[in-house]
Structure formats: C-alpha cells, structure tokens
Amino acid sequence: MDPRFDQALLQPQEEGEEKQQLELRNERHRLKFPNVKQLKSFEILNSAVKNFTSNTKFLSFVILSILPFFAFIVFYEIQISEATDAILRFLVPTSMSYDIGFDSDENISLFSTTDKNDSKRETFRIVFELVPLYLILLPLLELFSLTIVINISAKVVDAGNMKSTNLKETLYQKNNFKGPFITSLWVQLFSASNLFGLIWAVANHSMITARFDYSFWNYRYESVLPNNVYVNILSILFHTLISLALLYKYLDWSALWNMAIVISVLEGETGLDALEISAYYRKHCKRTGFQLMLIFFVYIVALRLPILLARMCSFVTVRVAVTAIVVVLVCLGSLVKWVTMVLYFYDCKAQAMLKKFDDEDVGQAVKDGDVCTV
Fold this sequence. Notes:
- The protein is mainly alpha-helical.
- It is built from eleven helices and no strands.
- α1 packs antiparallel against α11, α5 (113-157) runs antiparallel to α7 (178-218) and α8 (221-267) packs across α9 (271-281).
- The protein starts with a helix and ends in a 6-residue tail after the last helix.
C-alpha cells in the first residue's frame, strides 16, 4: 500500500487527538486554573467564590433566579422548627428521666402515657406533612433555580460571556428542563432510600426504648431500671453509628448526584446515563467531592444554630429577623454550591481526559517497544 495513503488515513486521527489534547490544555486556562494537577476542595471553592462575587451582573442574575426558592425556604424553615421540637420531644426516652418520687406503690410520678401518645401523633403528623414538601415541591423549585444558575455559571467561567449578555437574553434562553428533571427523579429516588434508612434507625431506636418502657410499667423499677439504662445507651450508640455511616454515604453520593445534574444541564445527558458519566468522571476526584459536600453540610448545620438560639427568645421580631437572615445565607450558600459543582465537573472531566490520554500514550509506547516490560 502506498505510504502516502497510510499517512492520509492517519492524519485525521492524529488531528483529532491533537485537538483533544489542546482542549485539555485549554480547559484549566479557561477556568483560570494554573495547571492540570488535581485541584483540592478549597481551591475549587475559592475559585467558585471569586467567580460568584467578582461579576455583579452574574450575581444579580442568579439572585433573581432563586426568588421562588427563597420564598419557599422561608415557609419551610418555619415548618422545620416545629418538626425539630416535636422530634426532640419524641426522641427523648422517658426512661432516661429519673425525676421519680413516690410515697407508696400507687403514687409514682412519671410521664403519662397520654402525653407520650400525643407526642408521637404530633411528631408523625408533622413529619408526614414535611415529606411531600421535601421530596416534591422543594426539588422542583430548586431544579428550576439551579438550571439557570448552572447555565449562567458555565458562561461566567467560559471566557466571560456575561459581559455581552443582557438580562432578557439570559432569563429567556432555551433551558433544557426535561433532562435535569429526569435526572433529578433518579437522584430523589436514591436520596429517599438514604432518608428511609435514617428514618428506620430513628424508628427502631424508638421501638426498642418503648418496649423497655412498657416493661417498666409492669415490673418493679428496682430490677428493671438498670437494664433499661444499659439498653438505651447501647441503642443510642448502635443507631448513632448507623446514622453516621448513612451520612458518610449520603455526602459521598451527593457529589455524584449533583455532578450528574450539572452534566444533564450542560451536556444534555439524562437519567442513568448522566449518573454513569458522573461516576466515570469522578473516579479520581472522590475525596475532593466528599470534602466539598462536607463543607456545605457543615455550613448548613452551622446556620441552624442561630435559629435554635433565636427560638429561646420571647420577642417574635428577633426570631423573624434571625430566620430571614439565615434563609438569605442558606440561599447564597446554595448558589455557591452549584457554582462549585460546575467547577468540580470541569476539574473531574479534565482529570478523566488526562488519565485517558496517559493510558493511550503508555499503550502506544508499549506497542512501539519504547517501554521495557518484564
């Protein structure tokens, strides 16, 4: 065969590989990343904060996009406060309270079974009211907001296109909600399985303590009370370990789920395909994703503390003001999180491409005999 013909056949393939390598080199430059080394979580977070705060037009666009989400969060936080009070009352085991005084066998001061049953009914009522809001309405509003935020974030990190984009063009651009919606359904399904595991741990602990509380009413407390204490302590330790394990897996999987939604928005992949691509991209960046999710989880939990302290205040104005400030911070944190996920997606994609090129180079070197093998 004519060597020139072989060269003509190989030329398009070589040009394609050079184009991919050039795209990889330009990926970090486009994102203002200095090199192709894997970025740490704080580097990605710092870059996200800079992109978020350095562009006032971008900041105004994303704030407008989350107004419906903000209004719902205000209502949701009020419901969460009631649910927290009810759950805490429900989770405190009655056998752990030793305020017991008696003059005779008939005069024993304990929590009444009527109050306990009322507390259980109130807890389950509030929880079942919040579950549809958490699993249906909240994800839909968040999906609407994050789709716009992800598209705008991609523009900001992509050569600063926001300078030439006006408000009308950005808000009314063609956004693909179908793909992210399908992906979010799978994400909610997997997330619900983790949530049900947590609910099982809480319910199982409650049933164990309730069983020994019943035995307390039927036997002399002198012989049953020590066993009751030991069982409660062991149950708390066991179910705490289960809850921590579920939390660890939730944070690890959250990075995969969130990046799958980013892939659905930016690359058009949907459902399980987006989740598979996300799993492939983050093979070499799992620790970074977990650390990012842990940072945002700690941030959200820390914001709950001012609300808990404000509920101790008797002034309604103070409680409302603190709740409003916390909700604003929660929404801003959500915006930064999705900007961070866009940058995390680009970083994981660059790492996957780099690994692919390295494997191809090693394979080609072995094939050509440039690498000694034993």
